[in-house]
Amino acid sequence: MNNIQNDTAKPLAWYQRAWQSDVCWSFRHTPIAMLSALVFLILVSMAIFAPWVAPHQPFDPSTLNLMDGFSPPMESAIGSGNVYWLGADDQGRDIFSTILYGMRLSLFIGVAAVFLAASLGVTLGLIAGYAGGWVDTIIMRIADIQLTFPSILVALLIFGVARGLTPPELRDQMAVWVLIFSIGLSDWVQFARTVRSSTMVEANKDYVQAARLIGRPRHVILRKHLLPNVMGPVLVIATISLALAIIAEATLSFLGVGAPPTKPSLGTLIRTGQDYLFSGEWWIILFPAMTLLLLALSVNLLGDWLRDVLNPKLR
Amino acid sequence: MVQNMSRALVEVQGLGKRFDVSSPWLNRVLAREPKRYLSAVESVDFVIEKGTTFALVGESGSGKSTIAKMLVGLMPPSTGRVVIDGVDLMQADALEQNQLRRRIQMIFQDPYASLNPRWRIDEIIGEPVLAFEPEISRRDRSRRVAELLEQVGLSATDAHRYPHEFSGGQRQRIGIARALASKPELIVCDEPTSALDVSVQAQVLNLMRDLQTELGLTYLFITHDLSVVRYMADAIGVLYLGSLVESAPASSLFDTPQHPYTRMLLEAAPRLDGFGRQHQPPAGEIPDPINRPSGCFYHPRCPFVTPKCAQEQPLQRSMGQAQVACHEVERLPVYHPGQVIEPSVSN
Amino acid sequence: MNSDSSDLLLDVNNLRVEIAQRQGTLTPVDDVSFKINAGEIVGVVGESGAGKSITGAAIIGLLERPAGIAGGTVSLLGQRIDNLPLKELRKIRGSQIGTIFQDPLTSLNPLQRIGDQLAETALAHLPVSRSEARDLALAALEDVGIPGAAQRLNAYPHEFSGGMRQRVVIALALIAEPSLVIADEPTTALDVSVQAQILTLLKDLCLKRGMGVMLITHDMGVIAETTDRVVVLYAGRVAEVGPTASVMRAPLHPYTAGLMGATPSATRRQGERLQQIPGSMPSLRNATVGCAFAARCQHVMPQCIDVRPPLIEHESHEVACYLHDPTVAPDGARHQLISSHGNSDGVGQ
Lengths: 315, 347, 349
Known about the structure:
The complex is a heterotrimer.
Chain A: H1 14-20, H2 22-28, H3 31-48, H4 50-53, E1 75-76, E2 83-84, H5 95-131, H6 133-147, H7 151-165, H8 171-186, H9 188-203, H10 206-213, H11 218-254, H12 266-274, H13 283-310
Antiparallel strand pairs in A: 1-2
Chain B: E1 8-20, H1 25-31, E2 37-49, E3 53-57, H2 64-71, E4 79-84, E5 87-88, H3 94-103, E6 104-107, H4 121-132, H5 138-151, H6 168-180, E7 186-190, H7 198-215, E8 218-223, H8 226-232, E9 235-240, E10 243-249, H9 250-255, H10 260-268, H11 307-311, E11 317-319, E12 322-324
Parallel strand pairs in B: 3-8, 3-9, 6-7, 7-8
Antiparallel strand pairs in B: 1-2, 1-4, 4-5, 9-10, 10-12, 11-12
Helix pairs in contact in B: 4-5, 4-6, 5-6, 6-7
Chain C: E1 8-21, E2 24-37, E3 41-45, H1 52-59, E4 67-76, E5 79-80, H2 86-95, E6 97-100, H3 114-125, H4 130-143, H5 149-152, H6 162-174, E7 180-184, H7 192-209, E8 212-217, H8 220-226, E9 229-234, E10 237-243, H9 244-249, H10 254-262, H11 302-306, E11 312-314, E12 317-319, H12 337-341
Parallel strand pairs in C: 3-8, 3-9, 6-7, 7-8
Antiparallel strand pairs in C: 1-2, 1-4, 4-5, 9-10, 10-12, 11-12
Helix pairs in contact in C: 3-4, 4-6, 6-7
């Protein structure tokens, strides 16, 4: 029972082992996971290759034709005669193309914010869990305080402060980075809590004692021994956080404090689109909103599946 | 005693460990509780001769693992000293400590928790080499790992596998190889076979004995299992609630156990030839270490109890080859192992 | 002991348990047969992975998917219980079979007072009134030697020490006066002194009430002191069955012999070398065609590898080994196994 390795068989190549691993097997037997992964992959690759995929270059004013404004989907526009698949917005920009570029920005901000949150949370969680005592108390109380505010509020607060500190002429340029910073800072707590508790479990195990016994420095124990063993749940949280971060970014942009209209994200697109909802130009808001929904949903479903497979106890 | 003839590698004097088990500060202030302490270990003395095996035997709450941790320097003692080869473990400077660390290693109880699951075997066994001899080249290190693997009965090709690919007994061999990697003199073994099956336990115990003869190792062997001790130890200390109640050479302890607790342990252990043995099971259970009984900690369960036992804590006294902490030791009846009653032949 | 067939309590016949996994079907219990008579304590001994706990779970119908009984029968007092619907099985589980597990907390409800748990079990399985059930609960606690039983009825499980908790579990298992008790490593988590208390208690109570006991353990010493007969399991199969003293003194199966030689004990001279069985138990994933012990056995013969040895009667034992099969074993192969096993020091992997 304890020796799973088949001693007589030839060792499998890494891709064979990966294909037969529990995670992969579960993936192959969970249609929802496969479907959401497919949707996510399509969306991501369209975003990454936006400059090549997009039929138009919506942010180059020289290619825009104002006469094409409000052109409905699948109809040839008044100005240029182009057919915009998903219609055009008030300035005659192709909605499909703006969505691709907007998604690119949303994804970038989301991934970077999660990366920031994860690095911060994992580091603080490791330190708190391993050091214990007052270090732990201070870190975890800060986390508790932050948790009492809704994270969007925290993000708004940090965003406001950070924006106040940046010189006005740089604001539009810096907006993306400020967004990443504020969303990342608002989201580290979950990482820190999970990592802290698994660090406390792992630190008591004998392999850590063995490393302490031979006088390994603390940072080596943290990085080499503990870090690899607490990363399992982090992957799950990161996936779920990605969906949240994308939505948080959209929310901030929708509220007008996020990505500037000159460099719109999905949230900015939805905000501009809502102005025209009641005047009948429904496509300007509907398609960006649908994309956001699809993106967040597919990431979320993937995260749920990953959580069930990797760590059923997190449920 | 033989003590003067051979060299003592480990001297433990008046070793004690107190843990603060009070509730958090605010709760304590609100509930007006005093601070509470748990004395896990109290004034323990013993000496381990070079090249021998000293066993610490005790049931749960006896403080045996705490002593192990203090001996290897994972936990500072509250009182007393641990002297390794003439150097006081607590007073040594950083350089001395590093050198001592190299000479003391440990084998752990749970073979599933003592190896980092994300590390390859060669990384696990090579870590002590890396830590103590950083100048050694990568190639020499892997050669050393291969030698160690073969020394513990595994194959050099196992170096590139991960812990989960091995059985419990094989993992314990890997743990032993890691302990040997820094060429130690003293190995502290904390219940090294209690998680293993009998047939695998025999393999590991035999291996440990062979290594002792081969490399002249000194063992501190910590266990709850007297039968394993009989097989491994030269001298034995019996712990009860953090104190040594008896220490003696192995043969003398098994043939003429002195302290009533030692006698009880020997009697209560199931015997392979004890078919249908009828014996009076020992009375009572181990008390809570936070509220230890007054006087001799064993007096509430002791069949030979006198009023003095409840008042005065007994000191260690010599009795034959043994050191015994019992007021009544001279007056105890001569020990004879419980009668074995053969199963009546009724079928 | 009486061993008339009229006293036959539990009859396990060719029991087979399978676990369906995506890599294939595992067979943790493979063709296991043994009997327990009334008033008899039968030990089931084996190392981890031998299938001893799964056998116990299969008998009381506690297997959970994907594990399930795939063959054979289990009969209690002549009635088959392996194919009963869950509802009837539950009735039997409390009233005719009592269970004691290693961890007392799995059998006790942490949020309910001990007295209520005992009384409820009595009410569910015996034709008694509420106050009678209460009296039974008190009597049960007194029987298992809990001091101050009357006050302790109102205590919660966490207020008991480990040994006392196991006593409560015994009281709970015995309150409905079952005819069979299945005890799965009941003393493994306890200290030696408490273990001796619990085993003595279990033995006394079962003898007094004429119950049959199936005692699952890995400890040969416990087997020796407690049981009348012993079933030695290896890799999910029966290696040897017989009267305890006879099996342990003169084991017929090489595995039993090796197990005895490997166990450190008080009877051994100090410093005497332990005999060791090379290698380890085959993994469930690598099921063997022939004898499961063949790869570790000193006396291995060609047929051991090819054909699985059947359980044959030999002297007072039943043993699954060709060494004792007069149609197969060469003359002189059946000498004492213990002495010949002593020289095996090959370090196994």
